[in-house]
Amino acid sequence: MSLRSPITSTDTPTTTPTYEPCGYMWAYQEVPELLVKVESGVHALNPDAMIRVQAFGENCVYADGRATFGAMETDVYIHTIVDDLTNEEALGNWMAQALPLIVQIPEDEFPGGYGMVEFWFENSNGESLYIRPKISRFLEVDVIKQAQSCSACFT
Fold first, then answer.
1. Could you give the CA distance from residue 67 to residue 58 in angstroms, rounded to a whole number?
2. Is the predicted pLDDT of residue 154 greater than 50, yes or no?
3. Are 53 and 42 in contact (CB under 8 A)?
4. One-letter-per-residue 3-state SS of the chain
5. Which position has the higher pLDDT, 25 or 11?
6. At what angle do helices 88-103 and 32-45 cross, to 10 degrees?
7. Residues 82, 110, 115, 62: what is their CA dihedral angle, to the nearest 10 degrees?
8. 83: Cβ–Cβ under 8 A, 6 or more apart, which residues?
9. Which of 50, 102, 106, 144 has the most CB atoms in a 10 Å sphere around its CB?
10. Statement: residue 18 has pLDDT above 80
11. How many beta carbons lie within 10 A of that of residue 55, not counting itself?
C-alpha cells in the first residue's frame, strides 16, 4: 500500500495584468438620473422649458468594438421661449433663478464634474440667443449679479 502525501503549496498564484490598447474618441452620453433632478427645478420656473443633461468625455474603443466611457464634464442645456431677446435684464433674471437650481445638486453627481450651462433663448420668430457659461464661473462670483449681467456671461 502506497501513501501519497497531500499536495501543499506555499506559492501564491500570480496573474499577469494584460494591457489592451484602445483608441480614444470624443463622446457624449446622456445622464437621465441627473436630468430628472434638473428638470424638477427648472420646470418650476417654466414648465415648457426643454432640458438636456449630457456628459462629455472620451470613449476608449477596443479592437473588438467594445467601448468604455470616461466623462470629463457634464453640461446642462436649457431651451426656453422668450418675448424679447434684447431684454438683458429679463434674460439675466431668468438665468439667476435657474442656475441656483442646478448648483444645488452636488458636483459629484455630475459625471466628470460641473461643465457648462447652455441657455438657449428663442423668440416667436425663431431667432435665438445662446449663452454658455461654465458652471464654475458662476460659483466663483456672486451668482445673482453674474446672471443679471448678460455681458458678464460672455467672459
1. 10
2. no
3. no
4. CCCCCCCCCCCCCCCCCCCCCEEEEEEEEECHHHHHHHHHHHHHHCCCCEEEEEEEEEEEEECCCCEEEEEEEEEEEEEEECCCCCCHHHHHHHHHHHHHHHHCCCHHHCCCCEEEEEEEEECCCCCEEEECCEHHHHHHCCHHHHHHCHHHHCC
5. 25
6. 140
7. -120
8. 90, 123, 124
9. 102
10. no
11. 22
* pTM exceeding 0.85: no
Q: Tell me which residue has cell 420668430.
A: 125
Residues 111/117/118/122 CA torsion (nearest 10 deg): 130
Which amino acid belongs to residue 146?
Q
Confidence band, pLDDT 50/70/90 cuts, at residue 144: very low
